[in-house]
Every structure is written in C-alpha cells, then in structure tokens.
Amino acid sequence: MEDKLGDILTIEELSAYLKIPESTLYKIVREGKIPSKKVGRHWRFRKEAIDNWLDQMGRKEPEPEK
Fold first, then answer.
1. Whole-model pTM above 0.70?
2. Domains (ranges, CATH) in the chain?
3. Cys staple from 35: which of 9, 49, 55, 57, with CB 3.0 to 4.6 Å?
C-alpha cells in the first residue's frame, strides 16, 4: 500500500494545517498527545491519523461539574 504524496506532513505543514504555532505543536508532540513518528531528527505525521485524532478530540465527554 503506497502513501499518496502529501499524506505525510512535516511539523511546519501540520502547524499550518491545525492553525497553531510550531512551538505549541512541539509541546503537544513531546507530551505524546498527538499521533507522530520521529524519523531521525524530524517529526512526521500521517494526515489521516491527524484527522482521526481531531475527530476523537471532538467526541470526548465533557468533564462533570463539581
């Protein structure tokens, strides 16, 4: 199964896609909160995995009020 060109995003591309600063994205990546792979010194992200992650983020149950 081959990846189509553009299915793999760099940190710069993902930052633009999510409309968040790269510094925030690096923090999320270091905390392991987003699906990612490190290739050498570079982070890579599958667009499909990011889209699924975003969908799951929207489905989280709200915290009960105290």
1. yes
2. 8-59 (1.10.10)
3. 49
